[in-house]
Design goal:
- This protein is an alpha+beta fold.
- The chain contains 31 helices and 16 strands.
- The strands form four sheets. It has a five-stranded mixed β-sheet with strand order 5-12-11-8-9. It has a four-stranded mixed β-sheet with strand order 1-3-4-2.
- Helix 12 links the parallel strand 14 and strand 15.
- The protein starts with a helix and ends with a helix.
């Protein structure tokens, strides 16, 4: 890899570190079970000497279920008296020792032995806690005690992960106070269907469909964590096949295989599970063993290389014949082959099963809106449209020798005013004539005809409101204008009647000289006293009008207040395109925020980002490149419109997006959504390029970055489904489910979403045993039993370890 490639790969690694710190924070510290206080039993005072055991039990279980629903989205846990007994056994032991501990005295030192004491398998988990049993005279309720017991578990990330693990569907709870009733000790035992023993073989029983060998054992969850999270191991199920009763193991690159199972102590075991073991009439498996059926000998990477039949020794291809299928498999029996992944020679850390994952119609374009700017211009407070009064004044000039008015003569004026819906209370008309026509009978008669004609027209326009009329000879206008005359400026200091005579003298000689001024003094001044009507569909036009008037009067704080109101109405779909398009805003730096918001609304109302909106946003952003909203919007335009030609293009745009996280006014969630869209674009580009180490590194780091961005619930099930489809292609089924989990309860999810979820959930025990998988299957049976049954015909039979799923499928699919 060249220096440039190394730099780019390092850049990608560094860029997602900006976000990854958030993952180290404990998201469970803000858990608040306050809603449980609505149960009056839980808010009763707790007395360690006389407390109600049922109330304490129910309160604790409800609090646990509430936490699991909030953070894991899972249904309520089920109860079993054997789990309660196991938990109570440990709670009593802690109370006697007056010490919080997961250990007990022999022969029940660990949870495994305590589970077996009550007839259970060794598959389960336990959490212990301690809290004060009373607070003296202070109020201390059942709710308070339970919360104090739960807090230290949620505070510890490792313990919280166990409590919130979706794999567990059963819970047992035990509690006991110490001898002096100062402290309450508790044990929470978690399990699932594999914790129970529906079939327990007798020691002497033979011809069993599963191996009883102790050559393998359950791995410690903490030691197995890395193995459990290795997505590459999912490919192992594709490497095993059977041909003429011979087991073949084949892969195209044994170097990649070495990365999976080539370390010291690594190995695999094949587990042959017969479908008859999960017959609807009963299950024949031993839940106290990591295998479900008949297992082979331990197979190491070195053994596979030894058995490699590939003729070309330089080839990375591996084809190994592992011998015949086990003799214990009945001839003609249907079976699945699971792959058990071993660490430290014998500890089973992972079960890899065949998959039948389907993803249909996952393509979805999550629209990411522009960022508004409602802070650069300080607003004038909340603005709300109301029926307010106003006075509108306008002039209608006299046309020479014209005495009759028609609507066409003043319609242009009303169009220019753009008045919204209104009711006129009164109309005043001031008929102004020039001073040289004062006391002229002919001109007075013409003026009267003009006014009466206009009055008639306006009265008809405004529902019979009769205008009041006054007459004037524009003396005040004349004094203002004549001051600009070099020859007659002194007229402004004389009397009106005297000047009128001088203008008429010598056959109107001076009047003719001053006609430029006098012609402007012949007009009608119309004043409307009105009230705006904002009822019904009139509100939008009124809001637009008020905004434009605020811009006209340069009242930017008021303009921002009005625009904020308009934006809210657009977002709630109450206003349409005109609310944005008719806003008249000067294109300059002073008005940049208002321009940004106008484009925000135009794009919000559009289905896609048009070239025009994108071009306009670039132009507006250039007015002030320091504006943070403009920076976000420019990145959005680039994400949607840039075509990558190289990895350097990716790095350039990614730098701009990462910079957004340093801008305090921007929403991190909004940036994350944009960043996700960027990563989709990167994945699509990289997967379309020729394979190379550089591109492979980029792709791996891109998926890592997506995880760091999308560690919270996404904005919609559609976007979650789209993102999940990317991780499915990358064999990361666990993260795909994590994205989809929050939406299983959403009644609007599509059938494709639901059945894809079921098919992904069936890929490994940790997912098909959890309550969300059960819920999804039951929903699938209700929505489309034929499609559900078709899926289960293709699934590995061990999904029937989930008892509720097995019962539902057996009943609905006529098995």
């Amino acid at each position: 890899m060249g220096k440039k490639s190394i730099f780019l790969a390092t850049f990608i690694l560094l860029s997602f570190n900006i976000l990854s710190f958030a993952q180290t924070e404990n998201p469970y510290l803000d858990f608040n079970p306050e809603k449980l206080k609505s149960n009056k039993e839980y808010t009763r005072n707790f007395n360690p000497g006389t407390f109600n055991t049922t109330t304490l039990y129910n309160c604790m279980i409800d609090m646990i279920n509430l936490a699991r629903a909030e953070y894991s989205y899972v249904p309520k846990m089920k109860h079993d008296i054997k789990l309660d007994s196991t938990a109570q056994f440990q709670a009593i032991y802690q109370a006697k020792k007056d010490e919080k501990t997961e250990l007990n005295a022999a022969p029940y030192k660990t949870l495994n032995f305590r589970l077996k004491k009550y007839g259970l398998s060794s598959q389960g988990a336990e959490l212990v806690s301690k809290a004060k049993a009373y607070l003296g005279n202070a109020e201390y309720t059942y709710y308070d005690l339970c919360f104090e017991l739960l807090k230290p578990i949620l505070k510890n990330m490792k313990l919280a992960v166990i409590l919130l693990n979706k794999e567990y569907t059963y819970v047992g709870f035990g509690f006991e106070t110490d001898e002096y009733m100062k402290s309450m000790y508790t044990s929470i035992v978690l399990g699932n269907d594999l914790t129970f023993m529906p079939y327990k073989p007798m020691p002497t029983e033979k011809d069993l469909p599963f191996s009883k060998s102790r050559s393998i054992s359950f791995g410690d969850p903490r030691a197995c964590q890395k193995c459990s999270e290795d997505i590459s191991l999912e490919q192992l199920s594709e490497y095993v096949s059977v041909r003429s009763d011979e087991i073949l193991f084949s892969c195209d690159d044994h170097k990649n295989l070495r990365k999976m199972i080539g370390k010291e102590g690594d190995a695999i075991v094949l587990d042959f599970v017969q479908l008859s073991q999960y017959d609807c009439s009963g299950t024949v498996v031993d839940n106290d063993r990591p295998n479900r059926g008949t297992i082979t000998k331990i197979i190491t990477y070195a053994k596979l290389l030894e058995l490699n039949e590939t003729a070309d020794k330089k080839s990375t291809k591996l084809i190994a014949n592992l011998g015949p299928i086990p003799e214990t498999i009945d001839p003609g029996a249907d079976y699945d082959i699971n792959i058990l992944v071993l660490k430290d020679g014998k500890n089973v850390c992972r079960t890899v099963i065949k998959k039948n994952v389907e993803v249909k119609n996952a393509d979805y374009q999550e629209k990411i809106n522009f960022c508004k700017d409602e802070t650069t211009i300080k607003n004038a407070g909340d603005w709300v449209p109301m029926n307010e009064e106003d006075i509108i004044t306008f002039k209608i000039p006299f046309a020479s020798n014209k005495t009759e008015f028609r609507p066409s003569d003043y319609d242009t004026i009303f169009q220019r005013l753009r008045l919204p819906a209104h009711h006129v209370a009164s109309i005043n008309i001031e008929a102004h004539n020039s001073l040289n026509y004062k006391n002229d009978p002919t001109q007075t008669n013409i003026q009267k005809k003009r006014v009466e004609s206009l009055s008639k027209q306006l009265s008809a326009k405004y529902n019979g409101v009769k205008p009041t009329i006054t007459y004037d000879y524009s003396w005040e206008d004349f004094k203002i204008d004549i001051a600009n005359s070099e020859n007659y400026y002194y007229f402004a200091f004389e009397e009106e009647d005297e000047i009128a005579k001088r203008l008429k003298a010598n056959n109107h000689k001076i009047a003719k000289e001053l006609e430029e001024y006098l012609s402007k003094h012949r007009y009608m001044l119309v004043t409307l006293h009105l009230t705006y009507d904002v009822s019904g569909g009139n509100e939008q036009d009124f809001s637009i009008y008020k905004f434009n008037k605020a811009i006209e009067t340069k009242n930017l704080p008021l303009a921002m207040s009005i625009q904020k109101y308009i934006i809210k109405q657009v977002e709630s779909k109450k206003y349409g395109n005109e609310a944005a398009n008719k806003l008249q805003i000067p294109e300059n730096k002073q008005h940049q925020a208002l321009l940004i918001n106008k484009l925000y609304m135009q794009y919000f109302l559009a289905t896609t980002l048009s070239d025009k909106i994108a071009f306009d946003m670039k132009k507006v952003a250039a007015l002030d490149i320091m504006n943070q909203s403009a920076n976000f919007n420019m990145c959005l335009v680039d994400v949607y419109q840039t075509t990558f030609a190289s990895n350097a293009d990716i790095a350039k745009l990614q730098t701009a997006i990462d910079k957004l996280y340093t801008m305090q006014s921007l929403s991190k969630e909004h940036i994350n959504n944009l960043n996700l869209e960027m990563q989709f674009k990167v994945v699509n580009y990289l997967t379309s390029q020729p394979a190379s180490l550089e591109n492979s590194t980029f792709l791996t780091n891109t998926y890592t970055k997506i995880k760091s961005i999308s560690n919270q619930k996404l904005s919609s099930w559609q976007n979650a489904y789209k993102l999940a489809s990317y991780f499915i292609k990358n064999h990361d089924y666990i993260f795909a489910l994590k994205l989809m989990d929050p939406f299983i309860h959403d009644p609007s999810i599509s059938d494709d979403f639901l059945f894809s979820y079921i098919s992904i959930g069936a890929h490994r025990p940790e997912t098909y045993l959890n309550g969300l998988f059960t819920k999804a299957v039951l929903m699938g049976i209700e929505k489309n039993p034929q499609r559900t049954c078709g899926l289960f015909d293709k699934f590995p039979i061990c999904v029937f370890d989930n008892v509720a799923v097995k019962n539902a499928v057996c009943k609905s699919c006529n098995r």
